[in-house]
Amino acid sequence: MIQFDAVHKRFPNGTTAVHDLSLEMPEGGVTVLVGSSGCGKTTTLRMINRMIEPTSGTIRVNGEDVTRQDAAELRRSIGYVIQQAGLFPHRTVLDNIATVPLLLGWNRKKARARAAELLETVGLAADAGKRYPHQLSGGQQQRVGVARALAADPPVLLMDEPFGAVDPVVRTQLQDELLRLQKELNKTIVFVTHDVDEAVRLGDRIAIFRTGGHLVQCAPPAELLARPADDFVADFLGAERGLKLLSLRTLAGVPQGPAPEGGAWSLVLDAGRRPLHWASKSTDAELPVRALKDTDSLLSALDESIASPTGLVARVDAEGVLTGVSSRDDIHVHAGQAHTEARAVAA
Amino acid sequence: MTVDWSWIGDHTDDLTSLTLSHLQAAMTAVFLGLVISLPLAVLAHRVRPLRGFLLGLSNVLFTIPSIAIFVLLLPVSGLTRTTTVIGLTVYTLVVLLRNTVEGLDSVPAKTKEAAKAMGTRPLRTLLTVEFPLALPVIFAGVRIATVMSISLVSVATYIGDGGLGQLFTDGFQRDFPTPVIVGVVLTILLAVVADALLVALQYVLTPWRRRRA
Ligand SMILES: Nc1ncnc2c1ncn2[C@@H]1O[C@H](COP(=O)(O)OP(=O)(O)OP(=O)(O)O)[C@@H](O)[C@H]1O
Ligand SMILES: [Mg+2]
How far B120 CA sits from the closest chain A CA (Å)? Predict the structure, then answer.
């Protein structure tokens, strides 16, 4: 757990970057810091590993005041991922990843073996290890950055816009992998981003900052979306925050029935009962079907119910075999309930 | 101007020892220049107010005519190799100091930050991150300093040293061109070979810069 207690940071030039911040970042959870540019997110993050010293207040990591510890040793126990990776250009990928283990005094062989293992963990091919950072793509470099931060298995991970410089497709991939990793590793992660969707996707809690280093609200994503504390938060979350909330809910509870026989359109299945497309009975028109699993979000169900010619959403099991269909109305009702529930939890 | 090949044949031992002595004077100067420049450059790089002073000082030293330096050193170290080496070292400082400072400046702030954030202490960062990344710029300085020193050694003939430079005085005094030509050719050869070796050394020391598209 990371605790900020009345932390204030004023730079020598008079800028107040963080204003009287008291905040708890729970153990084993992802706390996302969001807010417009210059609101103090990076400063907050960097005070945790003492890259920046607070002007007043205390920061504790797992109960220990960070200023009581040797700064270099503290930093070795906290993984840090920077935007555009910040890799060492003169070291191979393997040696980049092995940085902290080597600082901790591991022998070279053990450090390299650990690095090779991490290469696989973050989804890179083994032969990438012998290359230099400039020989990798931006997305690959970012993965190396994550591997380097994880090398000594630190309980805490600080990530400052780690996926800010890659294209949306790679970004989504990296987010997926982080979620997968986090399920296994259960690190205490502090993640800075500008992107509300990324925050909603990754965060167990989201802390929204306003310029001047003021924390406005810190809450789980659903609560934040359902009950923004004020207009600033509501504006920041954007006009579609109602829909964003649906991205947090799954389709699991929505009732399903058998695919109807009558009507203008029928659902065509393959031999293994996997949905292929919607076929018109009067013309030979075909429309694509996006079959959804129980784990897909209510938002994608809503989207599909609008796109589907019948207003029906095809539901499948993990193997892609049809289990039934859900109606637009049922999905709407559940979407509404999701909001009601989120408001109730928040209240 | 014809070359008397038999003179060369008769003097191979002398030529070899002069060449080695020439090379030794130049290399010692570059080595000492580095030993002095590296810590001073770190100081100039870290302590901004010192930077202008140190770089300015090395510039001033550079403008002293080479013969004047030897003359100034005579009361201190006399007609010795030490005088030659000190004189040459003073000249290497201007390039070595400037290039090392520029090399350290060229290390991206982001990379130094990353080293610090991983828990690397300042001295280790200097040795394992800053110097290696500054190496290409430092090497450019070492190459200039080496070639410059090799050509300057001859000036020390005035104080009775001067390696291959002795061939020039010998040739002029006897109005005999062969030693002069041989001296010039060997000096150039020495400079070219030394430079090529430094390029090779840099290639070996900076593997990350190879295969760069
Ligand atoms: N070293 C510094 N000296 C003076 N002011 C600083 C320094 N570092 C940051 N600031 C100021 O402190 C404020 C907060 O900066 P910070 O980098 O924490 O913002 P941020 O939320 O991370 O912004 P961004 O989203 O653009 O990365 C800004 O006004 C910034 O200009
Ligand atoms: Mg920032």
Answer: 6
